[in-house]
Inverse folding.
């Protein structure tokens, strides 16, 4: 994307947190930005501060008509989307047994299928221009799978699987796909944006139960700075070789390496059994 003089970004989930920080950073550097949230009213300050380069839209990524309208508006106002950032999403905490079917379906509808809908909406234009970038915001949770976050981790892992395949499909067309795995950042994720099972089961009090909202003491003290995360994402998109995978935060790096080392140790320990499953020559 470095050859573009002015880049047009479409960012979902800009009302708070990383999405808002990224929107501010993109606009401050002089790029165009279609900034979206469920209610465009929460984005009025951005639109007023950057009237020529910001377009604020109401967007529920689970609403097919709104997704199509957002892509059309971006085309009409700025001539197309160069960078899509799928940031809209929320957390859900429950032991696997506690998870409500409706809650889980809604979680996947936003965190996975909404992101896919956004990709499908902008890809025709990107393919036609033979350039573009897609950034899908995942979580280190997809890798470490904390107790109580099985469904959220699964949703992010699904998004990563889709992103990995799309990366291979789109790279020959000049379009990059980047998965971003943040660690803990000082956003509203563990506050307003976090939901949980309505009825806890006592047997999970010492595992999933310890991470319920009423027991969480992390909110407001997370080590990650959303403004610095925004600059890291911009740097990755504008790099000559945009990465397919980007960790954000020292905690994410440590967790990634610890998980990879533990998995490698199990592979080594069970290698003989794993290798014993083929037909005998």
């Amino acid at each position: 994307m470095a050859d573009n003089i002015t880049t047009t970004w479409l960012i979902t989930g800009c009302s708070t947190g990383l999405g808002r920080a990224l929107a501010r950073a993109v606009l401050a550097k002089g790029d165009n930005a279609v900034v979206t949230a469920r209610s465009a009213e929460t984005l009025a300050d951005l639109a007023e501060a950057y009237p020529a380069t910001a377009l604020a839209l109401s967007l529920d990524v689970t609403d097919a008509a709104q997704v199509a309208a957002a892509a059309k508006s971006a085309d009409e106002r700025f001539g197309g989307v160069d960078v899509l950032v799928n940031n809209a999403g929320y957390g859900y905490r429950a032991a696997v047994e506690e998870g409500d079917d409706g809650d889980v379906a809604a979680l996947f509808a936003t965190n996975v299928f909404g992101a896919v809908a956004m990709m499908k909406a902008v890809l025709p234009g990107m393919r036609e221009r033979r350039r573009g970038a897609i950034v899908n915001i995942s979580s280190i949770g997809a890798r470490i799978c904390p107790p109580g976050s099985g469904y959220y981790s699964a949703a992010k892992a699904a998004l990563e699987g889709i992103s990995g395949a799309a990366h291979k499909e789109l790279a020959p067309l000049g379009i990059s796909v980047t998965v971003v795995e943040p660690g803990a950042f000082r956003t509203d994720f563990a506050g307003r944006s976090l939901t949980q099972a309505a009825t806890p089961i006592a047997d999970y009090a010492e595992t999933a139960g310890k991470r319920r909202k009423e027991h969480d003491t992390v909110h407001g003290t997370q080590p990650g700075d959303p403004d610095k995360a925004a600059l890291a994402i911009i740097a990755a998109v504008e790099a000559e070789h945009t990465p397919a995978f980007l960790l954000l935060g020292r905690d994410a790096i440590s967790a990634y390496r610890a998980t990879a080392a533990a998995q490698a140790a199990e592979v080594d320990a069970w290698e003989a059994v794993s290798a014993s499953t083929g037909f005998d020559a």
Q: What stands out?
A: The chain has a mean pLDDT of 94. The radius of gyration is 20 Å. Strands lie at 8-11, 32-37, 54-58, 83-86, 91-93, 132-137, 175-182, 194-196, 245-248.
